Amino acid sequence: MSESTSRQQDEKDRRRDEILDAAERVLREQGFDAAKMQDIATRARVSRALVYLYFKDKAELHFAIGLRALELLRARFQQARARHKTGLDQLRAIGHAYLVFAQEFPVYFQAISRFEGHQATPDEEGAQKRMMMAGRLVHAELITALMIGQQDGTIRKDIDAHIQVAITLWGFTHGVAQLLMTKASVLEYEGISMVDFVNDAMEMAIRAVRA
């Protein structure tokens, strides 16, 4: 690749990132359904046509944000695992890391939630396929923790369907995160401490796999 071509690609990547940054700000303010491509173009200070040059439609732009979300989430899971030795403690840390992620990056959490509601197929292409692959890498962090736990004796050795258990734990934690974001007032009305709710939920999941 020539120096000129490399500079052009760098410029394209920079512009694409700027559009995604603008989209995240608009989505944070307006929500996924209300936000329009023109709003994103205006915030990015580019033409609407240029936005469509990078993203063929709103769905593809959403998938691109979802990919960002999953890449960051995987990094958070890796950091959580690195701080703990046993597989069981790694799983617990991953669960708490996901809940913190959901609170810290609500737009990313919404992007992941929308993708979870998307009817994925094995022959997905483009942005959808990249997001599916990123999701598998996130699940792989849970699988790694499960396998480490089986080796160190903290996780049940009779668990052999690792991907099934990983997806189940993911779904459970995702649901807890949604409750925290949408039903906080209900929990408060019922006199349920948010801290106790999180800790009890995580321990419920941990008990299912603990040796």
Automatic annotation (TrEMBL):
Keywords for this protein: DNA-binding, Transcription, Transcription regulation
Single GO MF descriptor: transcription cis-regulatory region binding
Gene3D superfamilies hit by this protein: Homeodomain-like, Tetracycline Repressor, domain 2
InterPro entries: Homeodomain-like_sf (IPR009057), HTH-type_TetR-like_transc_reg (IPR050109), HTH_TetR (IPR001647), MT1864/Rv1816-like_C (IPR025996), Tet_transcr_reg_TetR-rel_C_sf (IPR036271)
Taxonomic superkingdom: Bacteria
SUPFAM superfamilies: Homeodomain-like, Tetracyclin repressor-like, C-terminal domain
DNA-binding region: 36-55
All residue ranges annotated as the HTH tetR-type domain in the record: 13-73
Matches recorded under Pfam families: TetR_C_33 (PF13305), TetR_N (PF00440)
Protein name per Swiss-Prot or TrEMBL: Transcriptional regulator, TetR family
Source organism of the structure: Hydrocarboniphaga daqingensis
